[in-house]
Design brief:
Length: 329
Amino acid sequence: MSMTTETRGESSGSSIAFTATLIVLVGLALFGRRIFAGAFTDDGVRTWATMFVGVTVQALPFLVLGVLLSAALTAFVPASFFAKALPKHPALAVPVASASGVVLPGCECASVPVSAALMNRGVTPAAAIAFLLSAPAINPVVLASTAVAFPGQPKVVVARAVTSLAVSMILGWLWLLTGTGSSWLKMPKNRHAEGTGKFDVFRSAMLHDFLHAGGFLVVGAAAAATLNVVVPRAWLDHVAGTLLLSVVILGLLAVLLAICSEADAFVAASLTQFSLTARLAFMVVGPIVDVKLIALQTGTFGPKFAVRFAPATFVVAVLASFVVGWWLL
């Protein structure tokens, strides 16, 4: 009963936060010119509105599809299926778990409870971590949205898939090589109460993920539009002109914006001042380490895990993006 009450409370809180965000944005749309008359020109306001609406409208169908598929995966596919499908040897289980993200859709919000369920069913933590990183980054919905966001540039889709797959395998193998993770990994508990119906799980997972991901999409689209309008063009050109600096900056921006992986390609495509390599880093870092994921991982696996895992993930993702971007882009 307490789990059900907690889930309802969380959904109610998410609804309130999402509604508040929409009210703020509608208020800005109605009264923004008066409030920011000294900061924005009429052309600037029109540019901001056009980019904000364009990014949101383009990304929303992929976000909805990703949330529906993720909720179905959480509700109707038993975790025991993955435990039986993976090789027994941990070193071989890591690449198989990483590759399974290609055919098993799930946003990053859903990948944390799914990987937790895998650990509870006996899957080695290294393989569960590899799945945690690959599922939201290389599933069909994400790759399709990337292709739509970057039309005529299939190399961007390939680079994203290769980099994200490599990062997930590297971190899974690093977990095995260090051999110290068990001392600071808190084994997670099931998010849903025992005996909860599959359709109830599907409904609650869909509502939870859509409210969270939708809110972050709106904030991310607004931030991308604001970045293009407010930040001086000369400063952006200076940062974008230094490859390594631009890769790190967009990686950090992905951590802060926390956009759902089904929608982040459209935000990345709008950042035209930056190189494809820097935008690749934005798309690789976002689905595997951002502020909401750090919070989710802290609550699920414990703070000792999150404080070590998040920085390691960021460093590996940035370096891999730089190398693959230099190679393919």
